[in-house]
């Protein structure tokens, strides 16, 4: 499969606009953004980008009318002065993301649809030459992830995966990675990841579909089924909808938070762009924890099963790194170690450092302007999502699997390889 080297990628990446280089704040020089999916996370992104002077939001899109309208109001309220003065020409609020991509002068898109609707808009955006910020886990299945990565490389657009544990959350995860990289826990042998269960088939009953919701468009590439408000809540909702639990749309908690925590694990193991050799499910076929990924460097990563301390308590965190000389526990709330002395000595000038970026949105915008690769480009986002897909397949098939991370195929296992992709519904096969 075609892959660009880092050097050729940087040399070939297109400029966002020539105007963008002439001063970030002048109205004509802003990076223009379209938002695809303005549910809970999309609205969060919208609020964040509206607060940045170097961007201008020109389009919002959702399949639910109330959300489109609410997002349009957010934009118009924020840009009220500029609207009045004629500096801003207004925001398009549309139901079909292809209309966002067709917006004249659009530079980039933010995709925050449910997971089954990430790949196609991202691929079409890349083909249209738009830079992309796309939510995690990057895809609903592994094959569409590879297609997405190859399309991004071909289009040479700047891509950021929504894996903001690499930049934000107080820098705890960055610190953990640097400590592991610099041998502070000796030789790493085990990683334990504290995330919930794999995905299950959707069994929700039919409910009355609300006016103004395009349910068929919400389903998109996923199999046809009747409306249910757990999947697509009515109106402008708060909180994170539970489409996440169901394998038709997402990868369960294993993928929802796993996309974040496995991402940090692969980073710490220096396995960005790679993957495990073996996927070994737990012996109990009904177990929903304890699956193991065995890496070529001998490290074993274990899903949601933890060692116990002398006090009998689990030594538990979002990510636990166990080495020959100590253990680092890291989560969104902080970082700690056993023994405590592991973290006493700060990372020094001569130690190996992670990519320098402390704002996820900011890093993407900066990279668009500078033609640089982001902290979490498509290949990395895809490989982190792949761990989630492999874990779900392991639990579903319930037998040991051998994985060829280069070819992205299971070895001598046609049944397992069939799990790597799915055929989208014909009318929504857009790429
Ligand atoms: N990085 C992070 O920390 C976080 C990331 N996320 C990620 O963000 C993404 C969105 O999650 P969340 O906001 O909770 O989900 P929501 O269901 O709240 O939002 C998704 C929105 O996309 C809309 N949508 C669905 N299909 C389309 C389409 N074809 N075109 C345009 N809009 C569409 C949905 O419409 P409808 O109203 O019909 O559902 C909904 O409004 C997920 O991938 C999730 O994993 C979420 C939270 C935090
Ligand atoms: O970071 C996150 C916070 O929780 C959400 C709901 O589980 C996730 O989707 C998200 O990625």
UniProtKB/TrEMBL annotation:
SUPFAM superfamilies: Glyceraldehyde-3-phosphate dehydrogenase-like, C-terminal domain, NAD(P)-binding Rossmann-fold domains. The keyword Oxidoreductase applies. Keywords: Oxidoreductase. Residues 32-162 form the Gfo/Idh/MocA-like oxidoreductase N-terminal domain. Gene3D superfamilies: Dihydrodipicolinate Reductase, domain 2, NAD(P)-binding Rossmann-like Domain. Residues 203-429 form the Gfo/Idh/MocA-like oxidoreductase bacterial type C-terminal domain. Its EC number is 1.1.1.292. It is an enzyme of class 1 (oxidoreductase). InterPro entries: Gfo/Idh/MocA-like_OxRdtase_N (IPR000683), Gfo/Idh/MocA_oxidrdct_glycsds (IPR050463), Gfo/Idh/MocA_OxRdtase_bact_C (IPR043906), NAD(P)-bd_dom_sf (IPR036291). GO terms for molecular function: 1,5-anhydro-D-fructose reductase (1,5-anhydro-D-mannitol-forming) activity; nucleotide binding. This is 1,5-anhydro-D-fructose reductase. It comes from Urbifossiella limnaea.
């Amino acid at each position: 499969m075609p892959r660009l080297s880092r050097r050729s990628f940087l040399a070939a990446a297109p400029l966002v606009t020539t105007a963008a280089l002439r001063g970030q704040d002048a109205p004509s020089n802003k990076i223009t953004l379209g938002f695809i999916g303005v549910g809970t996370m999309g609205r969060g992104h919208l609020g964040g980008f509206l607060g940045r002077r170097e961007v201008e939001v020109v389009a919002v899109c959702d399949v639910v009318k109330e959300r489109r309208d609410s997002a349009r109001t957010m934009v118009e309220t924020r840009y009220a002065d500029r609207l009045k003065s004629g500096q801003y020409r207004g925001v398009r609020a549309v139901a079909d993301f292809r209309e966002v991509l067709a917006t004249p002068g659009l530079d980039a898109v933010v995709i925050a649809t449910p997971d089954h609707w990430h790949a196609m808009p991202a691929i079409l955006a890349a083909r249209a030459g738009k830079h992309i910020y796309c939510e995690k886990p990057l895809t609903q299945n592994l094959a569409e992830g590879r297609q997405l990565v190859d399309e991004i490389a071909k289009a040479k657009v700047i891509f950021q995966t929504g894996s903001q544990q690499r930049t934000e959350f107080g820098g705890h995860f960055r610190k953990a990675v640097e400590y592991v990289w610099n041998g502070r826990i000796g030789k790493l042998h085990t990683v334990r990841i504290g995330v919930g269960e794999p995905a299950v088939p959707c069994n929700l009953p039919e409910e009355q579909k609300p006016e103004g919701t395009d349910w068929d468009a919400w389903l998109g590439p996923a199999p046809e089924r009747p409306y249910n408000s757990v999947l697509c809540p009515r109106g402008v909702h708060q909180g994170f909808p539970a489409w996440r639990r169901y394998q038709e749309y997402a990868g369960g908690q294993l993928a929802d938070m796993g996309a974040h925590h496995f991402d940090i694990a692969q980073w710490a193991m220096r396995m960005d762009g790679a993957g495990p050799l073996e996927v070994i499910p737990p012996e109990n076929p009904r177990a929903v924890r304890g699956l193991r990924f065995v890496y070529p460097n001998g490290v074993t990563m274990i899903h949601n099963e933890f060692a116990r301390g002398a006090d009998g308590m689990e030594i538990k965190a979002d990510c636990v790194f166990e080495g020959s000389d100590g253990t680092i526990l890291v989560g969104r709330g902080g970082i700690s170690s056993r023994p405590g002395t592991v973290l006493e000595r700060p990372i020094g000038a001569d130690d190996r450092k992670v990519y320098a970026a402390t704002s996820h949105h900011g890093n993407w915008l900066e990279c668009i302007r500078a033609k640089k690769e982001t902290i979490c480009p498509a290949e990395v986002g895809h490989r982190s999502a792949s761990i989630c897909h492999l874990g779900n397949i392991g639990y579903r098939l319930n037998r040991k699997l051998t994985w060829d991370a280069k070819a992205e195929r299971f070895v001598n296992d046609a049944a397992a390889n069939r799990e790597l992709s799915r055929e989208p519904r014909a009318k929504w096969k857009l790429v």
